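Predicting holo structure, iron/sulfur cluster bound.
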Amino acid sequence: MSESISRRSFLKGGVAAAGSAAALAVPSAAAAGSDGRGQLATLLDIRKCIGCGACVEACRQVNSSKAPEPQKPFPEMYPSRVPVEDWSDKRDVRDRLTPYNLLFIQQAEVEVDGKKETLTIPRRCMHCVNPPCVNLCPWGAARQYKNGISRIDYDVCLGGSKCRKVCPWHIPQRQTGVGLYLDIMPSFAGNGVMYKCDRCYERVAVGKKPACIEACPADVQQIGPRADIIARAHELAEETGGYIYGETENGGTNTIYVSPVPFEELNAAIEKGPGRPHFASAANSMDKAENLTAAMIIAPFAAIAAAGAKFYGYMKSGQSDNSQGEA
Amino acid sequence: MKTNTHVIARKGRIGNYAYGLTLFLLALTGFAQMPIFKRYYIADIPGLGWLAEFYTTHFLHYLGATAILAITTYFAAQYLLVTRRYRKLSGSGAARAAILLGIIVSGILLVIRNSAFVPFSPAVVTGILLVHLGLTMVFLLFALYCRFAGRPWTIPV
Ligand code: SF4
Ligand code: SF4
Ligand code: SF4
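Done. Tokens:
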């Protein structure tokens, strides 16, 4: 399926590119589908990034009004193993994802065309086409918009961090001592709020570009309909002999990286760990459940058929029993 | 007639066990959707570590849901085709059926949401989740009460 889509969108993207080379305005998304139709994606050309960090500063600025302001001391949490995650005294940290730093620049020392080079790569939420962080949130605090943006509602999140655990890149970051859990049973359930890139959903809703895209002096990122972005990524990869990441990972994401070196190399060269996502392969995490959905649809019909077949016999023999008994 | 009900009752016992086991699996994996088993050491009990693996419990919950859809439909069909000729739903049986239906319908809505074909607003999702969880608690308590108070699902007509 993804192949046919990419072929179709390749053609479409080619026509669009021929028609206009103008900067892309952010279109509003049409009907969304599970295959990413109607969703907006971003393309990140890793070669272009000069690592200036302007995007990181822009991101911090637009998100400063949403940044957590925790109350201290934190309510005691039981049992004592529940970890306090407090970034409020480490707001300046910029070399990983934190609740105050939703975008960071990852570095990779690699060899490009026989020359040693340091690549700089902006990292944030991938905005999966079918995001497990949204689907599996037990509280409905995370949502996905038709335009492919997934967002955690900071007013609703209880900070249980399930989204981080189920995210193939463990993107969302927790701040203890803020949010709704304080009003429920702060000692026994919840642990703050999870933060991640919301791809500037308010700006995109009014046709503006995300702040990090706008601030970049090197035009590293583009945003547009997913099909077009994928077509462009393939064109770019073909032109430059590059490699693509994000098109199929976790069943497809809306963040497509194009790199001059294979992602295995990049993944080996970057520092990974908490708040520092990998570039490894990621299988579709919702796959198994999706396969069962078909079985769920069939189950009641199969049961009716089974019951019908079985009780038809009973009813018939019951009638003949009766008639015999009455006779 | 008597022989038939006898056979159905005996066969029904297997169905009842399947129903009970499936409900247990669903309740366990359902509660495991909340990040509580790790926090409260339950997943530390040897052999229960999988209760903290969200993808595992989610898959098992779907598996249980598939089974409960089949089992409840089968029971309903059995009731409509055969049982209701000589037994009828008791008051508590009707109440349990209604609550179960609510749990199933809200569960189906959540499966639809997960398949990403239809975007639901977050308030609606939270509402459905609360209904699903709330009705489950009510059902479990009520089912326990019925069990110990000896309230059968059906009574003779
Ligand atoms: S990358 Fe992680 S946090 Fe972002 S949408 Fe995908 S699952 Fe959610
Ligand atoms: S899209 Fe917005 S929130 Fe996301 S990284 Fe860029 S500036 Fe930050
Ligand atoms: S602003 Fe552009 S060039 Fe600078 S670090 Fe960010 S993506 Fe790279």
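Strands of chain A lie at 40-45, 104-112, 115-123, 142-144, 150-152, 173-175, 193-195, 221-225, 243-245, 255-259.
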